[in-house]
Specification:
- With 87 residues, the chain is an alpha+beta fold.
- The protein has helices at 15-18, 46-54; strands spanning 5-12, 26-31, 36-42, 59-64.
- The chain is built from two helices and four strands.
- Strand 2 (26-31) and strand 3 form a beta hairpin.
- It starts with a strand and ends in a 23-residue tail after the last strand.
- 11% of the residues are buried.
- The model has no long low-confidence stretch (mean pLDDT 90).
- It holds the Pfam family DUF2129.
- Keywords: Cytoplasm.
- This is DUF2129 domain-containing protein.
């Protein structure tokens, strides 16, 4: 249904030139003050796109986002302490 996506944080030196990153994937956010771009690309061609982005003159550094690898399922093994703090 939905394609698997990979996020990248791209540190840039020129914000106006960073708008050209839209042709490589979906630009989610551009920080004008801290000069970075958050973008998502399809996971099957993520390494190829990252290699092409590194070649751009205005790109300083590129980092992969580990958001999809963080565990979001929590267990309820911990006892509920709210009953001790009630009236």
């Amino acid at each position: 249904m939905f394609a698997e996506r990979t996020g990248y944080i791209i540190w840039v030196s020129d914000i106006k030139a960073a708008r050209n990153l839209e042709k490589y994937g979906t630009v989610h956010y551009i920080s004008r003050r801290m000069h970075y771009v958050v973008m998502y690309v399809n996971a099957d061609r993520a390494e190829e796109v990252a290699k092409n982005i590194r070649r751009l003159s205005y790109v300083r550094k590129i980092e992969r986002s580990y958001r999809n690898e963080i565990k979001t399922e929590y267990s309820s093994d911990v006892t509920d302490k709210t009953r001790f703090y009630g009236l």
